[in-house]
Amino acid sequence: MDDQQVTEDRVLGGRVRLRQKPDGYRAGMDAALLAAACDALPDQRVLEPGCGVGGALLAAATRRPDALFQGVERDSAAAALAAGNAALNGLADRVAIREGDVEAGFRALALPVFDAVMTNPPFFDDPAVLRAPAPAKSGAWMADGGLSAWTSFCLKAVREGGTITLIHRADRLADILALLAPKAGSFKIRPIAPFADAPAKRVIVRAVKTGKAPLVLLPPLVLHDREGGKHSARAEAILRGEAALDW
Q: CA Rg, the chain, in Å?
């Protein structure tokens, strides 16, 4: 892709260079939080369906230097950028990118199951709920097969005892739990609140395939202070790669 068609940003405290289109969906806070929630062990294999240009995938790979990562992206331009970003950051030996569509199912990829799946599914199933999203961003915002297609893909992609970690809108929490519960459990839920006195807008959900432990509701991550800097001290440490979202 022509250099004039992309910008280059630095994330994770400048440790990751990320080339992305200025008018497309751009990796932001959700990608950073998803990467911080990845706790893959050495030699474990991690899959991210819908990896975009690699914002979460490359940050997670940088945080977890002994794990292996696979990204899947249906948009050919985004997939090409993700592969280029992996090479740009010297991660091509541990981060692979494949063009593929979640709607086609995991088996269509002809890959062995993974130890962990991390994902930021599109937030909306119904185009009517959006106010004319930009065409360049609509693919990242709309899940053509609904949230059920994404959870089904994740459940098939991970081995028994493996983990599924996803970030989504807080108002879809009940749907997420209901869709994962037939084949997964041991849920841990981390609310993400904009302020300490405000309702959570996001949740990060961790599930274990075939897990049976009781659900755990973790303390929330508060992103901003009413007074002071742009981000809370903990959020800033996470964004800079100096802290993780522990489970």
A: 17
The Cβ of residue 29 has, within 10 Å, a number of other Cβ atoms equal to 15
Of 34, 89, 101, 43, the residue nearest 67 (C-alpha) = 43
- The tokens for 79 are 């997939």
- 158 bridge partner residues: 114
Instruction: Answer whether 0.70 is exceeded by the pTM.
Output: yes
Give pLDDT tens digits for 143-177: 456 899 999 999 999 999 999 999 999 999 999 99
What is the four-CA torsion angle of 116, 122, 123, 127, rounded to 10 degrees? -160
- CA end-to-end span of the chain: 39
- Kindly write down the DSSP assignment for every residue of 84-117, as one continuous string: HHHHHTT-TTTEEEEE--GGG-GGGG----EEEE
| Three-class secondary structure of residue 42 per DSSP | coil
208 has which bridge partners? 163, 185
